[in-house]
Write a structure and sequence with these properties.
alpha+beta; Alpha-Beta Plaits; five-stranded antiparallel β-sheet; two-stranded antiparallel sheet; 6 helices; about 40% helix; about 15% strand; globular
Length: about 240
Amino acid sequence: MPPKNNERDRSAGVPPAVAGASRPRFGAITIRDRGRLPHWEYETGTYFVTFRLADSLPTQVVKKLDAELALISKRVSDKAQPLTIYESRRLKLLHTFKIEKYLDAGYGQCHLRDPRVAEVVADALRHFDGKKYRLIAWCVMPNHVHVVFQMFPSAELAEVVHSWKSFTAKAANRLLNLSGTFWEREYYDHLVRDQEELGRIIRYVARNPEKARLKQWPWVWVCGQDARTTAGETPALR
C-alpha cells in the first residue's frame, strides 16, 4: 500500500539512511535537571545536541537570554494550565536558536577554527558511532558543535556528551598549550519528536556554516548524502 500524503511529506528532505530514525514514544520520557535547562531523555531517542566553548558568549548575553526565558516561562505558567512537555521543549528550542545568532557571530577565541582541534572533535563524535549511538549529522563550528544522533539502548545521553567534552577538552588544551575550562558546562539537547522535525534540524545543521558566512567549511557531515545538498529552510517552531 502506498504511503499517505502526510506520511510522504514527513520524510521529505531526510536522507534515506536516516528515515525512520526518530519515532520517540513520549510516555517513556525522563526529565532531568542538570543546570539552567531541563533535559528530556528517552532510551533510544533521537537528539539534537549543541555544546559550545566556555568563552563563546559574553556573560551579559547569557544572563539576558536566561532572563527572557524565565519571563516567558512565568507568563505561560501563570495561566490556568501548566506547560505540556511539547510546549516546554518548543520554548527551550526557541531559546537555543536565539543563542545560535550570537554563536554564529564568532565571539571568543574560536579555538575550533584550528583544523587540528576540529579534527579531534570530529574524531570523538565518530569514535562511538555504531556502538553507543548512530550519527545522523554533525557540524563543528568555530565556537560550538552540533550533533544529531540516535541513542542505542545501552547508552546514556549525559555519559555520551560528557565523554565527547572531556576527551576533546584535554586533547585541545594540549594542542593549544592551554589550561583551564575549555567547554561551557551546560549543553543543549533536544529530543526530536518526528520525521518532519528531524528533516528541519538536519538542514539547519548542514546550513550552519553558510549561515555564519564560512566559505568551504569542511567540518560538516550528513549521513547518506553530501551536506551541501541538504540546504533548506531554518527549522520552524510549530
